[in-house]
Amino acid sequence: MRKVRLTARPVRWLVVGALAGAATLLSGCAGTPGAAAVVNGDVISSEDVRVAVEQLGALYDEVNTVNVTTVLIQEPILTQVATEHGIGVSEKETVDLLNTRATQAGVDPLDEYAPSTLAVARYALTNSKMQDADDADDLSTEVATRITDADIDVNPRFGEYDPETLQLTAPSAPAWIFVPAASVAE
User: Fold this and answer.
1) Contacts of 172 by beta carbon, 8 Å cutoff, 6+ apart
2) Where does the secretion signal sit in this chain (predicted)?
3) What is the domain range of residue 159?
4) Which of 37, 82, 102, 107 has the fewest CB atoms lying closer than 10 Å?
5) What CA–CA distance (Å, rounded) separates 38 from 4?
6) Does some domain include residue 78?
C-alpha cells in the first residue's frame, strides 16, 4: 500500500481555497459586494457607513456602526413620509446642525460632510419635526408601516435586522469562531 503524504504546498492551496470561498460567502449583502444593506433596491455601502461613523464619532458619544446603519436604512423612508406631509429639512439646516454640534464638541466643523453623514443629521432633524407635529402618532405609525413593508437586506457584518423593533442588533461571532474566555491573572 502506498502512503500519501501532504506537503506544505498542497495544504497551503487548500487553506487558500477555503479562505477564498469563505470570503466570497461573507463578502456582501445578497450578492451586492461592498453593501452594508440594501433597502428597496437602494444600496447603502460599507464605505458610506464607515465615513458617517467616523465623521459623527467626532461630534457625538456612542456613535457606532449598528446605530448609523439603522438610521441610514430608515432615513429615506422617514424623509419621504415627512415630505408627503409638508415637513421638510433643508440642506442648510442639516449642515448647521452638524456645525453647531462640532463647535459644542470642541472640534472644527468640516468644510464638507459626506452624504451619509448629512443623511443621519437629516434623519435627526426630520424625526424631531415629525414628533412636534399635531399628527405625530399617525406619522410615526405610517413610517413604521413603510419600514416594515420595505425590502431590507442587511449584511451580517453590520448586524441583524429585527422587523419587530425595526432596529439592527449588533453582529455576533459566527458559531464556528472560537472566542476564548478571558483569563484571570492570579
Assistant:
1) none
2) 1-22
3) 30-169
4) 107
5) 48
6) yes
